[in-house]
Design brief:
With about 220 residues, this protein is an alpha+beta fold. It has seven helices and nine strands; from the N terminus they run ααβααββββββααββα. α2 crosses α4.
C-alpha cells in the first residue's frame, strides 16, 4: 500500500524544483489532507468557502492556484453548481484497485521542467512499473542524457542573456547526480530555462516591492 508520505514527498520535490509555489503547495497539502480524512475517497467534494477560510485566501487566489496544480498534473477539479453541490476534486496521483482494498500511486513526469510532456506511471502490486502511455508500435528511440560542462552551461546562459550562475547550476545538479526528484534529468537546457524563470521572478518581485503598501494576497 502506497504511503501518505510518498504523496507528500512527491509534492515537496515539485516545490523544491520551483514547479509549484509555496501557496500552491499549501492548497495541495490541504486537498491531500481532506482526501486522506475521507478514507481516500477520490474524487471528493469540498466547499470553496471552507478552502478559502482555512487557507486565508480569496476566490481569485484559489482559482489561480488550483489551475496551476492542474497544469502540474497533481489534481483535477470540476466547478460546483450550487452550495448543495460543492466543487469536485480529484488527486490525480491516487487510484484504487478493482477490489478497492489497496491504493496505488501514479507518478507523473511533472518533475521534469517541461510540463507539457507528462508521462504517467503506475506501481503494480509486484512493484513493477507499467507505462500507461505506451502503445504497440509507437515506441520512440531513447535519447541518452549527457551531463553538460560548466562552460556549456555558461555559453547557453549567455545566448539566452539570463542571470543564471552556470557554476551554481552545475554544482547543484552535480550534488544530486543530475536527478530531478526520482527521475534522471532529460534536458539540462530546459532546467536552465526554469532557473531563468525563477531568477527573473525574484528580481521582478524585489524591484516591485513597496514597503509602504499594505499586504495584498497574491
Amino acid at each position: 500500500m502506497t504511503s501518505y508520505i510518498e504523496l507528500i514527498n512527491n509534492a515537496w520535490e515539485l516545490r523544491e524544483q520551483g514547479i509549484i509555489s509555496v501557496h500552491e503547495h499549501d492548497l495541495y497539502n490541504y486537498l491531500l489532507h481532506r482526501c486522506n480524512r475521507l478514507n481516500w475517497k477520490n474524487p471528493f467534494n469540498q466547499s470553496t468557502e471552507i478552502i478559502c477560510a482555512v487557507l486565508g485566501i480569496n476566490r481569485n487566489a484559489l482559482t489561480n492556484r488550483r489551475n496551476r496544480l492542474k497544469q502540474a498534473g497533481l489534481i483535477k477539479f470540476k466547478e460546483g453548481t450550487a452550495k448543495m453541490k460543492p466543487a469536485e476534486y480529484t488527486i490525480t496521483c491516487i487510484e484504487k484497485d478493482t477490489q478497492g482494498d489497496t491504493l496505488c500511486i501514479t507518478l507523473t513526469d511533472t518533475l521534469s521542467y517541461t510540463l507539457d510532456h507528462t508521462l504517467p506511471y503506475t506501481y503494480t502490486k509486484d512493484k513493477t512499473i507499467q507505462d500507461k502511455t505506451k502503445e504497440k508500435g509507437t515506441a520512440k528511440p531513447v535519447v541518452m542524457f549527457r551531463k553538460p560542462s560548466p562552460e556549456e552551461i555558461a555559453n547557453y546562459c549567455r545566448e539566452r542573456k539570463n542571470t543564471v550562475d552556470a557554476q551554481e547550476f552545475f554544482d547543484f545538479y552535480e550534488s544530486k547526480g543530475w536527478m530531478i526528484g526520482r527521475n534522471k534529468m532529460k534536458d539540462w537546457q530546459a532546467a536552465v530555462r526554469n532557473w531563468e524563470k525563477k531568477f527573473t521572478g525574484k528580481n521582478h518581485n524585489a524591484a516591485s516591492h513597496d514597503n509602504t503598501r499594505p499586504y495584498e494576497e497574491f
